[in-house]
Amino acid sequence: MKYKRILLKLSGEALMGNRQYGIDPQRLAEYANEIKRIVDKGVQVAIVIGGGNIFRGVAGASKGMDRVQGDHMGMLATVINGLALQGACEDAGIQTRLQSAIQINEVAEPFIRRRAIRHLEKGRVVIFGGGTGNPYFTTDSAAVLRAIEINADVILKGTRVDGIYTSDPEKDVNATKFDFITFEDVLKKGLKVMDTTAFTLSQENELPIIVFDMNKKDNLYKVVAGENIGTRVNL
Ligand code: UDP
């Protein structure tokens, strides 16, 4: 396996499957099986989970809700998703710990960096819920932050498209995919990989990002094994 310790970012929307809202248990089970394959190979897996399938603070604010309160709701949504993913991983036979950036002690461990690393060393999957614990941030920023903190080799952004394109492939038939691209070119070309805060944090810390289609069977395994799947963003 090319990577020994990875940070997998899954958006909340990924958990919806074909639904319009919430969580699809079958999709969760599929993800858990994909994760198990790499855990069985000795890869240390940390996951940051989004909350967009349940609530986004920006969406609430656009309807007149207080932004900070909305973001708190969004962060709680990520904890809900984290619990669901933890359940699915345990059903698949993977030892899993959920750590939350916001204190919710009866439900999840608090985020403690050293403890998270210890879990990883013992072969446990660590799911980070609660984002960064701060409003006005996203779970992409949380993913980069946690990846740096635990010294992950790479961030794997699992999406429903198979990489970064010259334009949105769901809208433009002429869009072409990059196999590799530099951080600088992503910014120059105005491509959307992550929000700017998350993206520049990754760039400054020289942490590569691979965007790939998580919904295709075996893709996670292939990426971690070092196959050229998706798009790799490098320095
Ligand atoms: N959120 C936040 N701070 C964080 C991470 C998330 O306030 O550090 C809130 C924010 O309202 C966000 C919501 O949680 O809209 C869900 O996260 P995100 O939109 O990143 O989820 P995804 O798009 O990955 O499903």
Automatic annotation (TrEMBL):
Write down the SUPFAM superfamilies for this protein, in alphabetical order.
Answer: Carbamate kinase-like
Q: Where in the cell is it found?
A: Cytoplasm
Q: Where does ATP bind?
A: 9-12, 52, 56, 159, 165, 168
Q: Tell me, what is one Gene Ontology molecular-function annotation carried by this entry?
A: ATP binding
- Which domain of life does this protein belong to? Bacteria
EC nos: 2.7.4.22
> What biological-process GO terms show up in the record?
'de novo' CTP biosynthetic process; UDP biosynthetic process
Note how its activity is modulated: Inhibited by UTP.
Pathway, per UniProt?
Pyrimidine metabolism; CTP biosynthesis via de novo pathway; UDP from UMP (UMPK route): step 1/1
Q: Which Pfam families does the UniProt record give?
A: AA_kinase
Q: Please report which protein family the annotation says this sequence is part of.
A: Belongs to the UMP kinase family.
Q: What does this protein do?
A: Catalyzes the reversible phosphorylation of UMP to UDP.
Q: How does it assemble?
A: Homohexamer.
Protein name as it appears in the record: Uridylate kinase
